[in-house]
Structures are given as C-alpha cells and as structure tokens.
C-alpha cells in the first residue's frame, strides 16, 4: 500500500493511495488515533472513487460518526486503465438496448462479471487499511447503490468482517443468489420510479436478502433521485450497528 | 368537550375527556403553555385509545418533541357502547373467512363503513382540542396503522389541517381512492410478511398516495411486528414536518 498524498479540510484527512495498481482514497478524522469503524464505499457505474455522491457521504460518516471511509476505483473507472473487454461489452449492451432489448438483464450480467474481480480486490483493500493503526480492525460497514449494489452484494456475502450494509438501486437478476447468503442488517434503497431497475426487480432483491434485520426504504423518483433525508437515515443505521 | 380527569406522570399530563359521547384522551407536556403541533392517533382494530402501542408512541411525541397528542375510541371500541350493526358484520366476516373467503376485502369493506363515521368525529375532536390555549391551532400530524390506516387515509384526505402522516399495515382495497387525494408527506409502513394485509395490497396503497414526498419503510415480520427503530424514524419524520 503506497500513500501518494495527504490533505486535510474541515476536519477530514484525505489519503490517496495505490494498492496493487488499484487507486484508492481513505478518509479519516483529522488527528485520528486508534481503531474505529470503517465504511467501504462502492461507487456507481461511470463514476469513480471521488464522485460527489461518494465524497459527500464519506465526509458525513467521518465528521458525524468518527468513522474511517475507504473507496477505490472499480476496474475501467476513474484513474484505472480502460479495460477493452469491459468497453466492448458496454458498447454491445448499449447497441442491444437501443435495438429494444431489455436493459436490466444486460446490466445484471455486466455487474456479475465485474464483481468477480472487485470482491477479491476489496478484500485486499480491507486487509491493508485495517493494518493502519488509526483505522484498525474495528467493525466494517458497506455502502453502495446501483453498480455499488451489484458489486456490493457479492462482497458483503463473501466478507465476514462486514457487519451492516446500505444497498439499493439494484435488482434480483444480478444479485439474488449472493443476497441469500447475506445475514447482516441491511438498509435497502428503492427508487419507486427507477428507469433503470424495474421496481419488481428491486423489491425482489430486498426479498432475497437472508438478513433477519433488513429494512426497505422506497421513495418516489428516478434512479438518481434518492432524497436527502435518506443520508440522515444511513448515518443513523451505521451508527446503530457499528458504534 | 368535558374533561373527566387529569393526571400527570414522567412529564406528561393526561386529560381524559368526552366530546359528544366520544371518549378521548389528550396528552400534553406538563405545564404546557401556548400553541404546539398536535398528533391525532388512530388505534388498531379491537384496540382502544389507550392501547399500549398508542400510549408508548404518544409519550415519546410529548416528551421528545413537546407535541400534544389526542386519541379517541373508534365506534364499538374501548369505552364506547357496542354497536350491533358492526358486531353483526364482524361476526359475518369471521364466518366468511373461516369458510375460506379472502380476508382482505372483508376488512377493507368494514373499514370503509366505519370511516364514514370517524372522519367527521375526528374533525370535531380536532376543532375542540385546537381551541385549548395549551394546544392551539399549530400544525397537525396523523399516526395510524392497520385500522388506524383504514380510517386515517380518508381522514387525512379530508382534513387540510393535517400536514404529515404516518400510515401503514393497510391495503389499497380499502383506501386507494382516498389515498390519491392525499398530498402531504407520508411515511408508510409495510410488514413484509403481513398475514392480514397481502404485501401487494400494501405496496399498491403506497403507490396510490398522491403525495410528492412519501417514503415506504418495509420490514420483515408479521402484522404486529413493526420493529422498534421505526418509532425513532416516526419521531424524526414528525419533527421534520411539524416543528
């Protein structure tokens, strides 16, 4: 794990790092000492580790809860090299969707393919970050919606260190099998008028989750329109389960 | 409006009253002076104005938010005389359900019948309570699940003083038409394994709500098993919209 830069603003220290060629960012409270809960965040499709939605949430997890937060670029995203195989599939899928094919199964297939790489990558990141003395081996949470849900469900299912997860904007086609193996508390977000994930698919993924404690929050609006008050709820959810 | 008794405990003053033969209870903060938000609560079927689930919520609304809370007995419930017409329908419905008929449409029909009486009754209660100087004409919220939803949806639809509502454990069969006329923010509770209200019916009632801001909270478990953390969410919801 190589640290490339460290900056600080508004009480949050941002550490840019590279681990096995994977670019990542770790946010911690300024002057953090000793172990603390850690949130792993998965960004959305076409986004990257410092997308505005990721950064805004990370800052609140750090400043309001004192947590550490880590995010890395998904293959083919952000500062990672283009992946010709992925690009080809995306282009093909766009053509098939334009020709009238259903979008959801195409997205699902692509996310399952990418997850085969990201699950071990994120486990390696977790290993490395938890060795830092100001993060340590505290409880871990996962946050990810859309692509971050498609990749997050198999990650949470595979990783026993994760104790609670906020997921959503994803469907059962991609993730139902792995979802059944999840047993930790989950807060699951559905956008009632999601133009990318059919409502029934989102509800079916919530239904598939094996967790005894799982709570579905559905709100009107499209894929990108999660209301602001859900972030307040996310923070309370993580505080309840990780603090 | 006739006050029958007044007691106080843990900072909450409980006023028992009768209005046009309707027995009711009003809870306010001890020593309350001046106007404040008011929550109207509708109890469940077979319950009454001081059922444990009503009292527990009312106490938290009063102590944590400084609100006033009012609940009255639904016709045929609590301290109100038995209603032979209602009793006959309930007995008939039980027989029809025992004979294999679907329960949900029978419940829906009964609730619609009772609502024709409770909507004007509750409006009269609201008029009277808001004239008290320590309640006043502040913003009004409504809380009710199960029968409290079946009766609450037409009440909230009819009553412009209600600015926000927590509803749930109810289905579209009883209430979809009135739900379309509701435009205030709603937090709507669904129990994912509800044995009395089919999941699809609950989701369809949420869908029917005309509100631009509405949020569905669904959790595993049966009709009576709303998790404790939903009350925390209810309190924040009312605080956000009424304070």
In short:
The structure is a homodimer. By secondary structure, chain A is an alpha/beta fold.
Describe the structure.
- Two copies of one chain form a homodimer.
- The first copy, chain A, has 243 residues and is α/β, with parallel strands linked by helices.
- Chain A is 42% helix and 24% strand.
- Chain A contains eight helices and nine strands.
- Chain A has helices at 52-65, 84-98, 103-130, 147-150, 152-158, 172-180, 199-208, 229-242; strands at 2-9, 12-19, 22-29, 38-42, 68-72, 140-145, 162-168, 186-191, 214-219.
- The first copy, chain A, is globular.
- Chain A starts with a strand and ends with a helix.
- The mean pLDDT of chain A is 96.
- The A-B interface holds A 190, 192, 203, 206-207, 212-220, 227, 229, 232-233, 236, 240 and B 190, 192, 203, 206-207, 212-220, 227, 229, 232-233, 236, 240.
- Strand 9 of chain A pairs antiparallel with strand 9 of chain B.
Largest interface: A-B, 20 and 20 residues
Low-confidence stretches of chain A: none
CATH topology grouping of chain A:
Rossmann fold
CATH superfamily of chain A: Alpha/Beta hydrolase fold, catalytic domain
Helical segment count of chain A:
8
The multimeric state of the shown protein is homodimer
CATH architecture of chain A: 3-Layer(aba) Sandwich
Strand content of chain A: 15-25%
Overall radius of gyration of chain A? 17 Å
Order the strands across the largest sheet of chain A as they lie in space: 1-2-3-5-4-6-7-8-9
Question: How are the secondary structure elements laid out?
Answer:
The structure is a homodimer of 243-residue chains.
Chain A lengths: L1 E8 L2 E8 L2 E8 L8 E5 L9 H14 L2 E5 L11 H15 L4 H28 L9 E6 L1 H4 L1 H7 L3 E7 L3 H9 L5 E6 L7 H10 L5 E6 L9 H14 L1
Parallel strand pairs in A: 4-5, 4-6, 6-7, 7-8, 8-9
Antiparallel strand pairs in A: 1-2, 2-3, 3-5
Helix pairs in contact in A: 2-3, 3-5, 3-6, 5-6, 6-7
């Amino acid at each position: 794990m190589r640290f490339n830069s460290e900056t600080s603003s508004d009480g949050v220290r941002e550490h840019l790092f590279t681990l096995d060629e994977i670019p990542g960012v770790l946010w911690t409270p300024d002057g953090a000492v000793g172990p603390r809960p850690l949130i792993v965040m998965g960004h959305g499709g076409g986004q990257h580790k410092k997308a505005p939605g990721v950064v805004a949430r990370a800052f609140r997890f750090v400043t309001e809860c004192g947590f550490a937060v880590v995010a890395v670029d998904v293959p083919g995203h952000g500062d990672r090299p283009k992946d010709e195989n992925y690009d080809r599939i995306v282009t093909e899928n766009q053509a098939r969707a334009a020709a009238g094919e259903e979008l959801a199964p195409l997205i699902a297939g692509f996310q399952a393919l990418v997850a085969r790489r990201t699950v071990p990558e994120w486990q390696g990141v977790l290993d490395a970050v938890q060795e830092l003395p100001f993060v340590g081996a505290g409880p871990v949470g996962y946050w990810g919606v859309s692509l971050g849900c498609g990749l997050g469900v198999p990650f949470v299912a595979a990783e026993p260190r994760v104790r609670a997860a906020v997921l959503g904007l994803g469907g059962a086609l991609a993730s139902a099998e792995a979802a059944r193996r999840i047993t930790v508390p989950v807060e699951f977000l559905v956008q009632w008028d999601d133009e990318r994930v059919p409502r029934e698919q989102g509800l079916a993924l919530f239904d598939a989750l094996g967790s005894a404690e799982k709570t579905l929050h559905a709100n009107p609006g499209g894929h990108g329109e999660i209301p602001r008050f859900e972030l307040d709820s996310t923070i309370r959810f993580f505080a309840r389960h990780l603090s």
